[in-house]
TrEMBL record:
CDD domains: GIY-YIG_COG1833. Transmembrane segments: none annotated. This is GIY-YIG domain-containing protein. It holds the Pfam family DUF123. Residues 1-44 are annotated as: Disordered. InterPro entries: DUF123 (IPR002837).
Length: 170
């Protein structure tokens, strides 16, 4: 009986990746113009467990009606949306993005209604960053719903932005 092929000392089995292999989880997603350099992650496990800011990329397949307190009802148009947020609690960016990427959850924040109606494609992460600075860097983008996620901000009109696709696809 032939001997099993010798194992090289020091090698360990690599965990199997789920889904397609990503050569570099940071470089393959084109970022909106003006966004500071940040790593794009599609899996919360790729995010650090430290505090920081993030920019979610959400695609909305159909119009979504949203009502904010003391504001008129607004219908978000289908397409690409960006949401700037921050994670300061336990588990940092990793824990927060795990929640955003989960497809089943009890809606707690307004953004949960958007992520449940659409698909979270991933997020750019900025350890130690500030979400309002991300909004300021993307000030050229359209605000579909003033007041969304920005009630505690001094300068932001909204933390939800519309990022149009040039060639008309989602
Ligand atoms: Zn803000």
């Amino acid at each position: 009986m032939a001997a099993a092929p010798p194992h090289k000392p020091g090698t360990v089995a690599r965990p199997r990746r789920r889904g397609p292999a990503l050569p570099d989880a940071g470089a393959d997603e084109p970022a909106p113009e003006g966004l500071p350099p940040g790593r794009f992650i599609r899996d919360a496990g790729q995010a650090p467990d430290s505090p920081g800011a993030y920019l979610l990329l959400i695609t909305l397949p159909a119009p979504l009606r949203v009502v904010l307190p003391r504001r008129a009802e607004v219908t978000l148009p289908p397409g690409r949306l960006l949401y700037a947020g921050s994670a300061r609690g336990p588990g940092g960016l990793r824990a927060r993005l795990a929640r955003h990427l989960r497809t089943e959850k009890t809606p707690h924040w307004h953004i949960d209604r958007v992520t449940l109606a659409g698909t979270v494609q991933g997020a750019w992460v900025f350890p130690g960053g500030d979400e309002c600075a991300l909004v300021a860097a993307l000030a050229h983008l359209r605000v579909p719903l003033p007041g969304f996620g920005s009630t505690d901000c001094r300068g932001c009109v909204s933390h939800l932005l519309a990022w149009p696709v040039e060639d008309g696809e989602l």
